């Protein structure tokens, strides 16, 4: 199968960007801890938030400031570079989210 890259009539053909659809959550925000693939350093993963990318980044910024550490947003999951799950849970509950701590 070949794809059209260049046409003499229109010039270079740019590929269309692919959009990734996030699965809908069940309304429960889950906070888990992950250390695998991170050289032993743990991160808190926050999943299940039904927000768009801009709102996720704003919430991640607030959570990072609250914990005093770094973090990022990847594929609809907020990663916070610490094990402050109780602090994250209390803040998210104050923002009217239903929160569960997942994992051990």
UniProtKB/TrEMBL annotation:
User: Is Phosphoprotein given among the entry's keywords?
Assistant: no
Q: Which GO terms describe its biological process?
A: formation of translation preinitiation complex; regulation of translation; translation reinitiation
Record keywords, A-Z: Initiation factor, Protein biosynthesis, Translation regulation
Q: Which residues form the SUI1 domain?
A: 30-96
One MF term in GO for this entry?
A: mRNA binding
Region (Disordered), start-end ranges: 1-23
Q: Per its UniProt entry, which superkingdom is the organism in?
A: Bacteria
Compositional bias segments (type: Polar residues): 1-10
What the entry lists under SUPFAM superfamilies is as follows:
eIF1-like (SSF55159)
Asked if the record carries the keyword Endoplasmic reticulum, the reply is no
What InterPro entries has UniProt attached to this entry?
DENR/SUI1_TIF, SUI1, SUI1_arc_bac, SUI1_dom_sf
The family classification in the record reads: Belongs to the SUI1 family.
Classification via PANTHER family:
DENSITY-REGULATED PROTEIN, DENSITY-REGULATED PROTEIN HOMOLOG
What is the name listed in the Swiss-Prot or TrEMBL entry for this protein?
Answer: Translation initiation factor Sui1
Question: Which species is this record about?
Answer: Actinobacillus delphinicola
């Amino acid at each position: 199968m070949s794809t059209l890259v260049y046409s003499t009539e229109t010039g270079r053909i740019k590929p269309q960007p692919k959009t990734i659809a996030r699965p809908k959550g069940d309304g429960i925000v889950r906070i888990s801890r992950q250390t695998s693939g991170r050289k032993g350093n743990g991160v808190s993963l926050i999943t299940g938030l039904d927000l768009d990318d801009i709102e996720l980044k704003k919430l991640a910024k607030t959570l990072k400031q609250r914990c005093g550490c770094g973090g990022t947003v990847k594929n609809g999951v907020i990663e916070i570079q610490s094990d402050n799950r109780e602090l994250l849970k209390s803040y998210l509950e104050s923002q009217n989210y239903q929160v569960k701590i997942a994992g051990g």
